[in-house]
Amino acid sequence: MASPPLTVAMSVYNDGKYVGAAIDSILSQTFADFELLVIDDRSTDDSAQVIAAKATADSRIRVLPSPEKGRVPALNALFAAAQAPWVAIMDSDDVSMPDRLEKQMAHAAANPACGVIGCSAFLIGPDGARLGEGGDKPLTHDAIYANLEDKPLINHNAVLIARDPVLEIGGYRRAYRHAEDYDLWLQLIDRVEFANLPDKLVAYRVYPDQVSTRHIVEQTLNAAIAWQARCEVLAGRADPTCGLDEMPPLDEIDALFGRVGVAAYARRRVIERALYMPEALAGDGYEILLDHIAENGPDAAYWRAAGRLLKSGRPWRAASVAGALLKAG
Questions:
Q1: Would you place residue 210 in the very low, low, confident or very high pLDDT band (cuts 50, 70, 90)?
Q2: How many Å apart are CA 9 and CA 148, to the nearest integer?
């Protein structure tokens, strides 16, 4: 049989209550000539059973074995197995609008230099009720390029990617766990053109226990390090993170890069993002906040962060932050 023009790739972990709707939203697309590859990332709920039932009912679904635990190995396995020149990422807890694939594939056909095609999204809650807008993204390659460091670029859960450039660079890098998509954009941005469609073609599900909420500190740290690695390459130096399976501790990052300031940059980016999130500041962000205060001195925003920690029922963390502010002052 001829290979389809499109592969839809889905990695699933403990999304049994959502993955059926996610798969159905792909099977009901107006663009129907695709294969749907699914990897169950060793879920402990009924995800595997839901996937198997869907695969039995539609021959376009191909279930792949999990190569090893983790989203990055799963994504790389999906790209390696893809038969089509284009791969559409579909998260297992989201819902694609019926014309998503048709519109993205039409843009790809009309713009042969384009290799990454995103779109906008809107937010839904656990029950599927619409919550609000997901925020607009820059549309053109130049606008995306100009915002590489500071702005959201591409919704990874709503993107169409040319397969071959991803395979040529070795796929997603496992050291950039939870920021593997941002690192991928930085690897691809000088190889292919990027674009975002203005249409809101994916419903992004928001709920308290999702990965992006649980791992916001690690995600932000790794994104900051990815940007600094790009700066090394642009300066004509080697990427010091190339070949790493995991990122070293933050206090070893400056030594890895051979220059001072990378760790401080990463800490600042974490604080900028997590300052209004007591659960993040009380967890993985706690030591980062203390180090940042010691390095940069007191600030009214950090006193307010201490107050938020106190109000959220973390008096000892709040007292420690206040102590660090007094010492730094």
A1: low
A2: 25
Q: What does the pLDDT look like over 290-323, one tens digit per residue?
A: 999 999 998 999 999 999 999 999 999 999 999 9
Tell which of 184, 209, 234 closes a domain.
Answer: 209
Number of domains in the chain: 2
Question: Partners of 88 in the beta sheet?
Answer: 8, 160
Which range of residues forms the domain containing residue 180? 6-209
Q: Tell me the pLDDT tens digit for each residue of 152-173.
A: 789 999 999 999 999 999 999 9
Domain assignment of residue 119, yes or no: yes
189 and 227 belong to one structural domain = no
- Contact (CB, 8 A) for 239 and 190: no
Q: Sort 196 into a burial class: Cβ within 10 Å, 0-12 / 13-18 / 19+.
A: buried
What is the pLDDT, as a whole number, of residue 180?
Answer: 96
Whether the pTM exceeds 0.85: the reply is yes
Q: Which residue has the tokens 């790794």?
A: 222
Distance CA 219, CA 202 (A): 22
Q: Which residues contact 57 (CB under 8 A, 6 or more apart)?
A: none
3-state SS track over 7-57: EEEEEECCCCCCHHHHHHHHHCCCCCCEEEEEEECCCCCCHHHHHHHHHHH
6 in helix, strand or coil? strand
Instruction: Please report, as a single letter, which amino acid is at residue 242.
Output: C
Residue 212 has pLDDT above 60, yes or no: no
Residue 184 has pLDDT above 90, yes or no: yes
